[in-house]
């Protein structure tokens, strides 16, 4: 059983949860929805009080741990008044996973600006989950689709600021977390990491920028000294080609778009966000709240279904890994 949070109640989360249940009710993976039952429409709903009740209900109705919103939600119009319920759903899902009651947490998208307006102190899901279920290492984002896994070293910050923050230690830190997760949760005994360069042609031996020599190559040397199979710096314009992708298990990318563009180009609907370095398994669909189409019945559940299936697979692998 998996725990699925409601996400932004004015977004598409409740809608795609219902559609995901329709697609998965016969073969699973089974999940329970944490949030206001009134948000879910178009499918049978069973308000439950426990994971055990949810497992029994799942084949015939979407099980919901009903947690009423403190204010009504209007599709497409998020309100800070509902922020406490959004946060509480995440906290409860994490608690269920930490106790072992569920195998993993899958989070529907949140509207970060609304949570910030309500006083939420974290930049996003990843940092909040690190505070709730951290393991002593910074949580790391991975984006995955069939045939490609990427880990951005810097994420939600201006590009100029992201580049200024890059250090050999920061790159190596993210790579270590990815390496450990690939072994524990993906079942890869000897993960291969490909580290991207920053500049065109990976700097062209210093003629197009010196960051590869000053920052990226020293990080790779650190990793190799620790026995991690890391290669690079690789030219970013060829790293994600069909010929290159089979040569590594994950690409360590230096900034947000360098990592997300190839995943979304290859498989926008099937991309999954995975948080590495937690004591629990957490995945999320690789899209936002889609306020512009919320309530219209047109949102596709494919990425959420992929996230649910991915979470189940990771949980099963972690349970078998010493």
List the helices and strands and how they pair.
Blueprint: E1 2-5, H1 13-24, E2 31-35, E3 45-47, H2 51-57, E4 62-66, H3 83-99, E5 104-106, H4 112-117, H5 125-133, E6 140-145, E7 148-152, H6 159-165, H7 168-184, E8 192-196, H8 211-225, E9 229-234, H9 236-239, E10 250-253, H10 256-267, E11 272-276, E12 282-285, H11 302-320
Parallel strand pairs: 1-2, 1-5, 2-4, 3-4, 5-12, 7-10, 8-9, 8-10
Antiparallel strand pairs: 6-7, 6-11, 11-12
Brief overview, please?
By secondary structure, this protein is of the alpha/beta class.
Integer tally of domains: 2
- Residue-averaged pLDDT: 95
Terminal CA distance = 21 Å
Under CATH, the topology of the largest domain is which?
Isopropylmalate Dehydrogenase
Radius of gyration: 20 Å
Any idea what the CATH architecture of the largest domain is? 3-Layer(aba) Sandwich
CATH class of the largest domain: Alpha Beta
The oligomeric state is: single chain
> How many β strands by DSSP?
12
Strand order of the largest sheet: 3-4-2-1-5-12-11-6-7-10-8-9
- The coarse silhouette is globular
The named CATH superfamily of the largest domain: Isopropylmalate Dehydrogenase
Profile the largest sheet. Answer: 12 strands, mixed
Task: Flag low-confidence runs.
Answer: none
Q: With helices defined by DSSP (H or I, 4 residues minimum), what is the helix count?
A: 11
Percentage beta strand:
15-25%
Category by helix and strand content: alpha/beta
* Helical residues, percent: 25-40%
Order of helices and strands: EHEEHEHEHHEEHHEHEHEHEEH
């Amino acid at each position: 059983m998996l725990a699925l949070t409601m996400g932004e109640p004015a977004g598409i989360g409740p809608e795609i949860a219902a559609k995901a249940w329709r697609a998965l009710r016969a073969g699973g993976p089974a999940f329970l929805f944490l949030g206001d039952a009134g948000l879910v429409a178009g499918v049978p709903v069973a308000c439950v009080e426990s994971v055990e009740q949810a497992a029994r209900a799942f084949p015939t109705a979407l099980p919901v741990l009903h947690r009423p919103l403190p204010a009504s939600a209007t599709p497409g119009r998020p309100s800070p008044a509902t922020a406490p319920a959004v946060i509480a759903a995440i906290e409860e899902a994490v608690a269920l996973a930490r106790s072992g009651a569920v195998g993993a947490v899958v989070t529907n998208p949140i509207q970060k600006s609304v949570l910030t307006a309500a006083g939420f102190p974290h930049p996003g899901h990843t940092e909040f989950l690190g505070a709730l279920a951290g393991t002593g290492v910074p949580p790391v984002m991975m984006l995955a689709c069939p045939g490609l896994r990427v880990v951005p070293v810097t994420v939600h910050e201006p590009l100029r600021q992201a580049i200024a923050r890059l250090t050999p230690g920061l790159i190596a830190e993210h790579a270590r977390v990815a390496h450990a997760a690939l072994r524990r949760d993906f079942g890869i005994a000897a993960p291969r990491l490909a580290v991207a360069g920053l500049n065109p042609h990976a700097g062209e031996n210093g003629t197009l920028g010196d960051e590869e020599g000053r920052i990226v190559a020293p990080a790779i040397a650190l990793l190799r000294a620790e026995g991690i199979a890391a290669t690079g710096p690789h030219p970013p314009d060829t790293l994600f080609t069909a010929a290159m992708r089979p040569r590594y298990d994950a690409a360590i990318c230096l900034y947000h778009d360098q990592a997300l563009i190839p995943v979304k180009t290859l498989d926008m609907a099937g991309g999954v966000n995975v948080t590495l370095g937690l004591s629990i398994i957490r995945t999320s669909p690789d899209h936002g709240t889609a306020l512009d189409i919320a309530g219209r019945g047109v949102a596709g559940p494919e990425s959420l279904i992929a996230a649910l299936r991915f979470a189940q697979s990771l949980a099963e692998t972690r349970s078998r890994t010493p």
